[in-house]
Amino acid sequence: MSISLSAITKSFGKNSVLKEISLDIADGEFLTLLGPSGCGKSTLLRILAGLELQSSGTVSIGGRTVDGVRPKRRDVAMVFQSYALYPHMTVAENMALPLRMRGLNAWQRLPLVGRLLPGTRIAKRQIEEEVRRTADALSIGPLLDRKPGQLSGGQRQRVALGRAMVRQPTVFLMDEPLSNLDAKLRVQMRAEIKELHSRLGVTFVYVTHDQSEAMTLSNRVAVMLDGELLQVAPPHEIYADPDDRRVAEFIGSPKINMLAGTVRERGRIDAAGTTLSAVLDMPVGTLVAVGIRPEAFHLTHHAGAGSFAGTVRLVEHMGSDLFVHLDVRGQGEPLIARLLAERAPHVTIGQTLHLAADLDRVLLFDEAGRRIRTTREGRGASVARLREMA
Amino acid sequence: MMAGILSVPDHLRRRRATSTRPPDATVEHAVRGHRHADIATAWSLAGPALILLMALFFLPVLTVFVIALTDWQFGASSLSFVGLANFREVFADQGFHASFLNTILYVLIVVPGTILLGLGIALLIESGKSCRAFYRALHFLPFMATLTAMAIAWEALLHPTIGLVNQTLAGFGLPTANWLRDEHTVLPVLAVIGIWQNLGYAMVLFLAGLKAIPQDLYDAADVDGADAWLDRLRTVTLPILGPVTMFVSIVVALKAFETFDTVQVLTQGGPEHASEMLLYTLYRESFQYLRTGYGSAVAVVFLAIVVALTLVQARLMDRKVHYQ
What we know:
The complex is a heterodimer of chains A (390) and B (324). By secondary structure, chain A is an alpha+beta fold. Helices cover 24% and strands 32% of the residues of chain A. Chain A has a six-stranded mixed sheet with strand order 6-7-8-3-9-10, sandwiched between helices. In chain A, strands 20-14-11-12-13-21 form a six-stranded antiparallel sheet. Chain A is elongated. Chain B folds into two domains: 2-53; 88-318, Orthogonal Bundle (MetI-like fold), CATH 1.10.3720.10. Chain B is 76% helix and 0% strand. Chain B is built from 14 helices and no strands. Chain B has helices at residues 2-19, 27-67, 85-92, 94-127, 132-144, 147-157, 164-171, 186-211, 215-224, 229-240, 242-257, 261-267, 278-288, 292-321. Classes of the chains: A alpha+beta (390), B mainly alpha (324).
């Protein structure tokens, strides 16, 4: 089912949590809402599920407007961060509940009377089969008689997935489903969720604050900050071609280097003690932010225009890569460069180093944090091109 | 007591001294010294509580057990052992039977009544948004009040001619009763007072329990389709309140078993022993008729019943409410 959110706002009292969010999610897409805690991503998901009512705007699922429609009638399933398993029920009962609530009427659900009513037995057997089939698919078949309290975190996670899957919803909503797991299990479950998505082929909306989850799982990532939707794009584009300074800073580890720059005549930019040239159509004296990802740096031997000179403050060996922290004069925070270990084997603390940036990968932002795309570019080649001042 | 506590730092200092000694032939000696010192610390820490517990709890209980085997009368200078004669008398006594059955009936009314009403009120308060603190305080007041004084207020309300209850009933043309003097109504009326008194306590515990239910579970129930009031109650609220309910039922049952003040103030066990309950029987035998030996036997039986019931209740419910 496709999902369409248009101009969703939400405020609690005077506190505005969501500001005019519009978003279209295609049928079968895996979309991740990514943002730091408190950015409103969970609230947006809860509005989508019907657990929370938006202050204004409309939600439609599969072309049907669902504002005011109860969660159970939206045909969505949700996996919660805490798993929200019913502690008094066995795994089988937990997974059967959504089916029982749909397949049996109130009388049939009664403990003793229900059994006597016509159709109950057949319906119950179907539910049992369905639960077993789903449990086997998630390899939790042997756990069906246990209670959640007797399960490990990963097993509970599977049960929560199972409870969501068992009624074959057309939309899966997941609210930070992996954040209660340890690192190893998280990577494993991440792969399983991805596989689940390709197997089921239904729409997934996944909320997380973990960019590696967002980048590995999604077809598209929606980056949210302070109740605003900053950018919706495929993972590689979010990383390489961010629309907004905040997106660039939020995505990527170590963080992107942001240098304060000033536009000089003929499109040159002064930043961190060096001069870069861009094809910029901006008045002289405009302040810009120059964003350079750590891996966009490379070592260079000639000092001078276009290269950043500084002393090495810290070297972190990561195996194939080195993270070099470089103190540059006039720059508050050190620049962080990610260099291939084999190309920079002898970097030591205190050493003076010259770094040049890969010009295709330098990102420029205006004072409001919006991306400055240079005028000559076509739509596809959207990186700001800079030329070294030779 | 003080000496025991003060000796601890001394000991710790000594212990540090021994542990820094180099490992040689004296090690074994030092280790043994350690162990002795640890034991001494343990006793000196547990000692005060142990002495108090012995003096205030175990010894009196033991004394009651011993007195139950004698024909001692309160204040008498001599006594003789009569073996189990007191217990035989207790079990053969019609008065005790009546008192026992009354107590059971009373508990069977008070416990479910308190739990249902307490839970109901807690759910109502929790579902509303305004005046929560006010309603909470209002319902908790009876539990705080002195029951003896409250019993007198109830007596006035239940007075056969000028009492508000009968006047109201008569006003609506309904039949009235002499509530506290009629053997059919007296026990239920006492039970109602018992419920009224314990309600607030149960409510406060249920409120705390309701607050502790994770919102996620209700959300999950909503998504799963259990979003009607009764379904939510059955799927989430009641099961999660299980441990609280167990605690409330045990505590209220114990309180109901020990009911004494309302009986003493309002009915003195009458009419025709219709409102006589175990604790009142115990009191009357021991301190009014001064048959302390017999009274002690009743006390022992009472203790046995209460302990047994509590254990059974805890064991049975524990298995059902702690979801492991």
